[in-house]
Design goal:
Belongs to the PPR family. PCMP-H subfamily. By secondary structure, the chain is an all-alpha fold. The protein contains 37 helices and 3 strands. Strands 1-2-3 form a 3-stranded antiparallel β-sheet, with no helix packed on it.
Length: 634
């Protein structure tokens, strides 16, 4: 190291150039010790106050995550330029120093487009989408012109079609070069995520130049919008246009076959992957494992997985979820343990699958997995902690869920939503409302799921006033437009309160056609009070909105039967039979050790069911014999 420094000092370049070259070398080799030595040398010769070198040191320390050291460097720079402020701002956001980053932004003497881009991406990374859009509007009011990168950031987190179209319009008005491949691809991806496939196709068709990323974005958009056949058609068009698919193209096409349940086309993709030597790619192979698993060919998935020489987290995730999908929870957990034996660090997705599996088995097993996660140091990670909260709420240990939630260092909106929904699910309605109020008090804007959770708590708790107040202020106060799930909660709440007319008025005032979930509580309420006209009217609307639901037919049959209207009853039963609808059967299950016993329609669904019934009869006989003996003795 010393020889390297002497060699640089021995050259004819200026000292500034020397240190610039050294810092570039440190950045390339990634040595934190070397970075500290260079910084010490700069302080010794007084170069640490030079703006250019100070900025390079800032980059060095932020690269290694040494935030406190970086802030000392920042303070030492005598004349800070905009680059200095931007490097520090970006670094603080990157390592989670949200409040300090906002404070630094407020102190900036001059802000350019890079400064605003950092703030927008920083707010978005924390889930504060509305604040990110607010920063975007502020920069425009102050005359800072957005760059292409600004718009690419915005398109990455848009969650509303209206906002997406507005951003697209602003791009056009701002004079941004829309022929830019990156922006075009970002727009295709954005519209695909929003389910606006025709807009994504429109952007693709108007692009002057497309690349493999453009095709991948379009094919993915088709899949996300539920148009898997169109996705495969685009795949074939891409190949005919002379573009060579990459691993993302192939995996997306295989995913389309999986969603269609088309094993024949999936096998064709499998053969093509084999032909172009893509089976060595874990993304493609995991997609094939998922395909076979979802098409009831689990044995083929297992065979592929066992033949892999080098396992990774992606492959293990696919196999874990495959086992879980087929109810093989023990195999799912065994594969999870395999990840550790292979020296792999499980991802958040892995842990989510495992925790979902344990929630279906037993409380004891869930606690064991929790202990393992603590031992491995995963409990402090926000996504894992949220999954633990979800697991404990599903198995009814709501107090354990709350304890984990309140121990979390960072609580994002997903974790708040998980707890609110869990509290509502477990009958802790007052606490669900209290948690919602605490979220609002902290200044975090709720989303669609938050409001669905708190309205669900009001629904089951019978809190009519609170529910109506939250529902009526959703759009104005929180910027969330009510959808079917919110209307279903409020309609059911009104029905339970005996306000059937208000419930019907609410359903009929919906801006879109109400789904069967909205009409269902009204139908049940009508059946309860015996209003046949209303039952017929609502049942007819439910049959139209959801033809596969048997509930309206069953309630109509019951209503006609009670009134002796046999012709109407037979007509409805015949229509139900023609549509292939069956009676709704309830199901209960219980987990004992590592086995799940399901009870459905008075029948034990278990391979050894007959043997269990024999034992039960023997036990009953034995108890009866003992009772007879006692009676005779008496």
């Amino acid at each position: 190291m010393c020889q390297f420094l002497r060699r640089i000092y021995g050259s004819n370049k200026t000292a500034l150039a020397y240190y610039t070259h050294v810092i570039e070398h440190v950045l390339s080799i990634g040595s934190f010790d070397f970075a500290q030595i260079i910084h010490a040398q700069l302080i010794k010769v007084g170069f640490n106050r030079i703006t250019f070198l100070g900025n390079r040191c800032l980059q060095l320390y932020f690269k290694f995550g040494a935030v406190s050291d970086a802030l000392k460097v920042f303070d030492d720079i005598s004349t800070k330029n905009t680059i200095s402020w931007n490097i520090c701002l970006s670094g603080l956001f990157k390592f989670g120093y949200f409040q300090r980053a906002c404070s630094l932004f407020d102190k900036m003497p001059v802000r350019d487009v890079v400064s605003y881009n950092s703030m927008i991406s920083g707010f978005a990374s924390c889930g504060l989408i509305d604040y990110a859009f607010g920063i975007f509007l502020e920069m425009q009011k102050l005359g800072v012109r957005p760059s292409g990168f600004t718009f690419s950031i915005l398109t990455s987190f848009v969650c509303c079609g209206r906002h997406g179209k507005q951003i697209h319009g602003r791009m056009i008005r701002s004079g941004v070069n829309l022929s830019n491949l990156v922006l075009g691809n970002s727009l295709i991806d954005m519209y695909g995520k929003l389910g606006l496939l025709h807009y994504a196709l429109g952007v693709f068709m108007t692009m002057e130049e497309v690349d493999i990323v453009s095709w991948n974005s379009l094919i993915t958009s088709c899949c996300k919008s539920g148009h898997e056949e169109l996705a495969l058609k685009q795949f074939y068009l891409m190949r005919s246009a002379g573009y060579l698919p990459d691993e993302f193209t192939i995996s997306t096409a295989i995913a389309a076959c999986t969603k269609l349940g088309d094993l024949d086309k999936g096998n064709q993709m499998f053969a093509f992957s084999l032909k172009v030597a893509f089976l060595s790619n874990s993304i493609v192979l995991s997609a094939i494992i998922d395909l076979f698993s979802k098409c009831n060919r689990l044995e083929d998935s297992v065979q592929l997985f066992e033949d892999v020489e080098q396992l990774d987290s992606v492959l293990c995730n696919s196999m874990i979820s495959g086992y879980a999908r087929h109810g093989l929870w023990e195999d799912s957990l065994r594969t999870f343990l395999l990840t550790f034996r292979e020296g792999l660090r499980p991802t958040d997705f892995t842990l989510n699958n495992v925790l979902s599996s344990t929630s279906l088995l037993s409380t004891e097993l869930g606690s064991q997995v929790h202990s393992l996660l603590v031992k491995l140091g995963f409990e402090s990670e926000a996504i894992v902690a949220t999954s633990l909260v979800d697991m404990y709420t599903k198995i009814g240990l709501i107090d354990c869920a709350m304890k984990i939630f309140f121990q979390m260092d960072v609580r994002d909106l997903i974790s708040w939503n998980t707890l609110i929904l869990g509290l509502a699910r477990n009958g802790r309605y007052f606490e669900a409302l209290g948690t919602f109020k605490e979220l609002i008090r902290r200044g975090s804007p709720p989303d669609r799921i938050t409001l669905a959770g708190v309205l669900s708590a009001c629904r089951y708790g019978g809190f009519v006033d609170e529910g109506m107040s939250i529902f009526s202020s959703m759009e104005e106060e929180y910027g969330v437009e009510p959808c079917d799930e919110h209307y279903a909660c409020i309609v059911d709440l009104l029905c339970q309160a005996g306000k059937l007319k208000e419930a019907i008025d609410t359903a009929e005032a919906m801006p879109s056609q109400p789904s069967s979930f909205v009409w269902e509580p009204i139908l049940i309420a009508a059946a309860t009070i015996g209003d046949l006209n209303l039952i017929e009217r609502v049942a007819e609307r439910m049959m139209t909105s959801e033809p596969q639901s048997s509930l309206p037919y069953l309630l109509l049959v019951k209503a006609y039967e009670m009134r002796g209207r046999w012709e109407g009853m037979i007509r409805v039963m015949k229509a139900m039979k023609q549509r292939g609808l069956k009676n709704i059967t309830g199901c209960s299950w219980i987990g004992i050790k590592n086995s799940i016993f399901a009870f459905e329609a008075d029948q034990l669904e278990y391979p050894s069911g007959q043997e269990i019934y024999v034992i039960l009869r023997l036990l009953s006989w034995e108890v009866g014999e003992k009772d007879n003996i006692l009676l005779h003795n008496d």
